[in-house]
Design goal:
Elements: H1 3-14, H2 18-24, H3 32-48, H4 55-80, H5 88-105, H6 110-134, H7 139-167, H8 173-180, E1 182-183, E2 186-187, H9 188-206, H10 208-218, H11 220-225, H12 230-256, H13 267-277, H14 289-308, H15 313-345, E3 378-380, E4 391-393, E5 399-402, E6 407-411, E7 419-424, E8 428-434, E9 440-445, E10 448-452, E11 458-462, E12 481-486, E13 492-496, H16 506-512, E14 517-523, E15 528-536, E16 539-544, E17 550-555, E18 560-565, E19 574-578, E20 583-590, E21 596-603, H17 606-611, H18 615-624, E22 639-643, E23 649-654, E24 666-670, E25 673-677, E26 684-688, H19 698-703
Antiparallel strand pairs: 1-2, 3-26, 4-5, 5-6, 6-7, 8-9, 9-10, 10-11, 12-13, 13-14, 14-15, 16-17, 17-18, 18-19, 20-21, 21-22, 22-23, 24-25, 25-26
Length: 707
């Protein structure tokens, strides 16, 4: 390796560029900007204003924050549902008036005052919800009208009954405690806001109605087509917002023990600014309560800070307007360009210098020399199949394979001319194996590990494993489960080819060539899935050794085969038994003579091997060229290799003309025939093995003869 290559390897293998893309895919990264704004705002005003962090100052500010956050929480739910509520300020003011009127004028209990405030908010929220949700009026105009009507009504009531409120002698310790008291140093409005925020967050993220709100906000038409009652969902978002404004109105009524002309004035502007500055989308469907609370803190700290620094109302309004404009611009631009940013940074290739391989060219005289025997294979299901990635046969000689349409098809013995859909699994069924009870186990791309019983019942066995502590990306989910095999004790060993890409993005994984594949085991006794090995370049085929004490698995992009020991002094360790192959290994299965069959899904090419030493070139390629012009592993032609227990190559088979089986992803020996599958093929091949045991079957090899 030259010095420049060594530098290139250090740069691309040691610098974790891929972490940037993984971080940006996270939903919580949307919180980064509002959180940074929050920290900056508190730091700036905390340093400029003397006594900003004193207990008395913080308690007074947090009381306002509690009331304000309650209003913002309600508005956020409306925005998540795809709406907007400009009437929160007038509802807030009217609810405050309702509470003080019941308590001071009618001299009723505190709890009746709370009920009056909530009823006021409920009534206005229901009006907004009915007009916007059921009558489908424009949310902006509708809530603007209710804002004007509500504000006008409030002004009339304050002028008419303000003096009676001020002259009342009604009092209550409970009223005063809600307004001025604390619990462990925390004011009641803050406690109410925290409880409301937690409950709302849980409801939005963990309950069916919450999911409906997000679905409606994302796309009302899609939500309707999915069976969600869109009108009712929109109606209840406005009802909830009204109730929140009603609760906040009661809290400020207790704190001020009155209502004046300035109550709730411009609150709708403050609340909307807080929700948007926090990162909640005006388009709906994207945001969270936490973002709204962060935005509320930013807005309240900034407005109060400017007032304490001597700036007037005009300055406050201008700053709020600038903040709102900036937040809207960032939201729109980020939503429009997020995928472009991810495309620029997510794919992070590494440096790899592949060792020279022996030639597979006919006449080369190497152990890997391909012949043309597979061209003599017969066709099964020609034109009826699309993508039979793996094939397997049962005790009755019936032939099974998965298809690209999510079905497992069964061809009936003895001539395999008749076929039926054995089961519809969904996804893309890949690796197949039969357990002792006759259940068909399948790795389903992007879905997980599944079992199909003899009566065709489909059961999901596993879709995730434990998440590793050091992973930024959620590596618990099985993204590309590929091949599986079953140990004598019933445990299912299978591969997850890559943790960074879904099955259909295998080309990106090959271009990046980062070790993200792993070997896992599913234990049917307790239903657990455990990661055994990690860090392989596209972990692929799995096959139990004949003695059941170890297994072989393929590492496709590294052109290697490894042996993992289940028992003995090497238990829990893996060793490479075949390396530097001229082809990319795929599924591995037992042979009748005690050896093992292995598929080559494609052959190495000098051009791609060279590109692996130039990660910068591969990075530019994925950014500047359309996908159909990318350079990635050749999977258009392959072959079949037989190897022994030590990894020694016994023989190879190929189809040089590409007429029958141009690419191979699996093969299964059964009663003297080799059945061949390919993920890009439209048929299954059937090749006679002249020297094979004519009575041998893989099912008997694993589970013994049927009784």
């Amino acid at each position: 390796m030259t010095f420049s290559e060594r530098l290139r390897a250090w740069r691309y293998n040691l610098v974790p560029d891929h972490l940037i893309g993984e971080v940006l895919t996270k939903r919580w990264t949307d919180n980064a900007i509002p959180f940074a704004a929050l920290v900056a705002t508190v730091a700036v005003f905390g340093s400029l204003i003397p006594g900003f962090f004193k207990v008395a100052s913080l308690q007074d500010s947090t009381r306002q924050l509690g009331e304000f956050s309650v209003v913002v929480t309600g508005l956020v739910v409306v925005m998540l549902g795809g709406g907007i509520d400009l009437s929160v300020g007038s509802i807030f003011a009217l609810s405050c008036f309702a509470a003080v009127s019941v308590f001071f004028i009618f001299e009723q209990s505190v709890w009746l005052a709370l009920a009056a405030a909530l009823a006021t908010g409920l009534a206005f929220g229901a009006v907004n919800g009915y007009l916007v949700g059921y009558l489908k009026l424009r949310a902006f105009i509708t809530t603007l009208v209710t804002f004007i009507i509500g504000r006008s009504l409030y002004d009339i009531l304050v002028v008419s009954f303000g003096s009676k409120i001020q002259m009342s002698s009604a009092s209550s310790d409970t009223w005063d405690f809600i307004g001025d008291g604390t619990v462990l140093g925390v004011s009641i409005p803050v406690l109410a806001a925290v409880v409301l925020a937690i409950v709302t967050h849980v409801a939005l993220t963990r309950s069916r109605p919450g999911w409906h709100v997000l679905a409606v906000g994302g796309s009302r038409r899609s939500a309707h087509n999915a069976g969600i009652k869109v009108r009712r969902t929109v109606f209840f978002t406005y009802v909830f917002s009204g109730l929140c404004s009603g609760l906040a109105g009661f809290l400020i009524a207790c704190r001020l023990s009155g209502a004046g002309p300035g109550t709730g004035l411009n609150l709708e502007i403050l609340a909307l600014t807080a929700a948007v500055v926090g990162g909640n989308s005006l388009g709906g469907g994207r945001g969270s309560v936490a973002k709204g609370v962060m935005g509320a803190i930013v807005v309240l700290v900034m407005t109060n800070g400017l007032i304490r620094m001597g700036y007037g109302t005009g300055t406050n309004q201008m700053v709020l307007g600038l903040m709102l404009a900036a937040a809207v611009i960032i939201d729109i631009r980020w939503m429009k360009n997020r995928h472009k940013v991810l495309n620029e940074v997510y794919v992070a290739p590494v440096y790899l210098r592949m060792s020279a391989a022996q030639s597979a060219v006919p006449g080369s005289g190497t152990a890997y020399e391909l012949d043309n025997r597979l061209s003599e294979a017969d066709h099964i299901g020609l034109g009826e199949l699309e993508g039979p990635e793996d094939v397997i046969l049962d005790r009755d000689d019936h032939l099974y394979c998965g298809t690209r349409h999510g079905e497992i098809v069964r061809f009936l013995a003895p001539d395999y001319r008749r076929s039926e859909v054995f089961a519809h699994v969904g996804g893309f069924p890949l690796g197949l194996a039969f357990d002792r009870a006759g259940n068909l186990i399948s790795c389903v791309g992007a879905m997980g590990l599944y079992a199909i019983s003899p009566d065709r019942t489909v059961t999901r066995l596993s879709a995730e494993t434990r998440r590793s502590w050091t992973s930024v990306q959620d590596d618990a989910r099985l993204r590309d489960p590929n091949d599986c095999d079953i140990a004598p004790d019933g445990r299912i060993y299978f591969t997850d080819s890559t943790k960074r890409y879904d099955a259909h993005d295998w080309a990106l994984d090959s271009i990046e060539n980062r070790g993200t594949g792993r070997l896992l085991v599913y234990d049917p006794k307790d239903g657990s899935t455990t990661t055994l090995l990690d860090g392989y370049r596209y972990a692929n085929g799995v096959c139990m050794a004949h003695d059941g004490k170890s297994l072989f698995f393929a590492e496709s992009w590294a052109c290697r085969v490894h042996r993992y020991w289940l028992e003995g002094p090497k238990a829990g360790t893996a060793e490479c038994v075949i390396k530097d192959m001229p082809g990319y290994p795929d599924n591995i299965n037992r042979a009748s003579d005690g050896n093992y069959w292995m598929a080559w899904l494609g052959m190495r090419t000098p051009s791609f091997d060279l590109s692996l030493r130039h990660p910068d070139m591969r990075k530019r390629m994925t950014r500047r060229l359309p996908q159909d012009e990318w350079l990635f592993p050749n999977i258009n032609t392959g072959g079949i290799v037989k190897f022994d227990e030590t990894g020694g190559i016994v023989e190879t088979l190929g189809d040089l003309a590409g007429a029958s089986h141009p690419m191979v992803t699996s093969m299964r020996e059964h009663k003297g025939f080799l059945y061949v599958g390919g993920i890009l093929n439209n048929r299954i091949g059937r090749y006679r093995l002249p020297d094979a045991d004519q009575a041998w079957t893989s099912v008997d090899s694993y589970w013994g003869k049927a009784r």
